[in-house]
Amino acid sequence: MLRPRCSQGFFSLVSGGLCLLFHEALALETVAIGQGGGLDWQGRGAAAVATLDAEYRAPADPDNPGGTPKLLVGNAPGGLIEFSSPDFPRGLLPKRLVECPQGSCAEANIADGALARGGTIQLPTYSSFSLQYKKPDLKEDLAELITSEPGGEEVAVELKNFDAFGQLLLLDLGARFGVSRLRFYPRNTVHKSPATPFQEDFLRSYELFINDGLNLTREGVQIWNQVVLERNNKNPVVDVVLDPPQYVQSVRLKSLTQFNWEIDEFEVYGKGFLPTALYLSNIFDAGGPATWVRLRWEEEVRGDPGLSQVQIRTRTGTDDSPFVFTRSLRGKPNAEEIPFSVDDPTQEMTRAEFESLPKIDAQGREWEPASVQDDLVNWSPFSTPFPASAANGPGSPILSPGPRRYLQFQVLFQSADPEAVRVLRSLSFDFLMPPLADELVGEIFPRQVEPSLSAPFVYVVRPVMKTFGLRGFDTVELSTPTKVESIDRLEVLDPRGQLVTRRDFAGLQDTALVDGFQIAAVAKDRLRVRFPLIREDGAQAKIWFHTSILTYSTNFSSSASLSAEPQATQAVTSGDAASLGEGDDADFSGTTVLSPQVQRGDLLARVELVPNPFTPNGDGVNDQVALRYSLLSLSLARPVDIRVHDLAGRLVRVLYAGSEANGRYEDKTWDGRDGQGRLVAPGIYLVRIEARGDATTDTQTRTISLTY
């Protein structure tokens, strides 16, 4: 066997004689937020990283759709988050609305704040030919209608001295709320205002509708739910109680009277926790490229746990803003949007320069602000949500790309009941700096095989090691569609593709650590192997193994680590890692394997009965028959039913009735007994297995001989 070498700390074992390699110990850093953490949810406090303000787009102004886009600073878009409360000190949760008797609490009026959340209030049916309003005044009066400000009782929206029948008032709250009461009234009623004695100009006939923001047509048009039809109202203060409270995002008031009316204030009162609320963390700056390792959180449930959820996502970046700021020539229709600085076109435009526009350049051209776009070059999109099962436990690996300098996370709270909520008590994440490598590139070959059949594969990890002080790796963990049937050998190659050292394995039980190589673990959906320490740029770590593919498309994701600190993992990115022989087209290199034949609709494959025949006579030899099968194209668990019948079709025994997903199953047995535990007579029996997918059902039957 070839022996590993020890030049420049590349390998850690011997080359003819003894070679020792010393490297600094790993130093995982942890950032903790909330209870027991150094930071609060708004980024205040001390931590191992710097923090930058969170930014998000301001709501679009419906009255100025082409206006200059703006970014707002803060962690709670729409202001729907509570950062601490008496019940949950230093906890993070959606705001809770407290019902006030007769709507007497101004702070509970959720209509106040709708415009800041991106909501709107409109009078779309109002005639522009009326002399009652000039357009700017109407906009201001509508805004005052839902704003609780001192002195506002002297201003109202007035529909007078013309036909007021059929006028519509539309209010969008800017978010969904649990609403218990709606109230509206003219001046000099709730708020006394002798200078404007219009208490009799109240709405005498009307319809009131609500929409929860989710009940929409296929085209996205609101489907309104009528809550009141009043044809003879005699109360100046209209107070509509929703019992039980209902989720509301929009309100529609329609006038059914021709007489004068006005509204001084339109109020909406909520109850319970908000059904949807978004938190956006500060941006965490490690000061240089870092491997973001694992995220954990502690949550507490109030109310029915089945009616609330928390979704946590991460994204990583290489610069300090996840946005791109653009400019365009003033006065030029359909002008090109340019993301570079006016003064230095080789640099991206900063937010400060964007907000200083318009500006005239050296050629006398005037530039104005254009769109603010997501930066999809320097920042990743937000990841898929972390698994809910990771809460209150060891957490879950951060799968956003790395190493990268910046990290941000978001939390989406959702609830289907005003009294159901999940509260984040704390959240923490680990990072490693410097990382294991600048990048780890992974590739698998072949990339197309027959389904369910054992196939040979090679998986390669190639490190990019350009930066000084990178740590390297000696462990690779690889996800697999089912338990691998064999790990045949491990190899290490130099940057030229020449073999440096290898080890062959006699089987999965060959787990001894020899010359730095080891089968460290094999599970039903992953394997973990050890190599001698790899720190050379362009080196290759190869895993040769056998497994079967069970779906049309299977991704073999992986991560690397150092055995000295197995928690300090770094994700391997899919790409062109090496030339792997004939048919390895670099343009199609990656970690995905296709099995197009799966599209035919088969759900079952490789159904086997072993041994056949079998002899359940109690002698300890072939007393049971094992049923082995593969499930295909079932990414989620679906019903599987296994039954034994005699040749007349009568049911003998139900061996299994449950739900299973993709995989190779070898855990079902039959001991020759019926459903009452009695041994059946010798003969031939039918074992029938049925798998039911979303669109198809697959059934296979095998015969089994039972003898004594």
Explain the overall architecture:
This protein is an all-beta fold. The chain has 4 domains: 29-79 and 280-411, no CATH class; 100-270, Galactose-binding domain-like (Jelly Rolls, Sandwich), CATH 2.60.120; 439-597, Immunoglobulin-like (Sandwich), CATH 2.60.40; 601-706, Immunoglobulin-like. The chain contains 2 helices and 45 strands. Strands 1, 2, 17, 18, 19, 23, 24 and 25 form an 8-stranded antiparallel sheet that branches. Strands 8, 10, 11, 12, 13 and 15 form a 6-stranded antiparallel sheet that branches. Strands 30-29-33-27-26-37 form a 6-stranded mixed sheet, with no helix packed on it.
Shape estimate: globular
The proportion of strand residues reads: 35-45%
| Coarse structural class | mainly beta
Main beta sheet: 8 strands, antiparallel
Structural domains: how many: 4
From the structure above, extract its key features.
708 residues; mainly beta; Jelly Rolls; Immunoglobulin-like; 4 domains; eight-stranded antiparallel sheet; six-stranded antiparallel sheet; 2 helices; 45 strands; globular; disordered N terminus
Task: Draw up the topology in text.
Blueprint: E1 28-34, E2 50-52, E3 55-57, E4 71-73, E5 81-82, E6 93-94, E7 96-97, E8 120-122, H1 135-145, E9 157-159, E10 168-185, E11 206-211, E12 225-230, E13 238-255, E14 261-263, E15 265-270, E16 272-273, E17 276-280, E18 283-302, E19 308-317, E20 323-329, H2 351-356, E21 359-360, E22 366-374, E23 396-397, E24 404-415, E25 421-432, E26 439-445, E27 455-464, E28 473-479, E29 486-493, E30 499-504, E31 518-523, E32 526-534, E33 540-547, E34 553-555, E35 558-562, E36 565-571, E37 573-574, E38 592-594, E39 604-610, E40 625-631, E41 638-646, E42 651-660, E43 663-670, E44 683-692, E45 697-706
Parallel strand pairs: 26-37
Antiparallel strand pairs: 1-25, 2-18, 3-4, 5-6, 7-16, 8-10, 9-14, 10-13, 10-15, 11-12, 11-13, 17-24, 18-23, 18-24, 18-25, 19-24, 20-22, 21-22, 26-27, 27-33, 28-32, 28-35, 29-30, 29-33, 31-32, 34-38, 35-36, 39-40, 40-43, 41-42, 41-44, 44-45
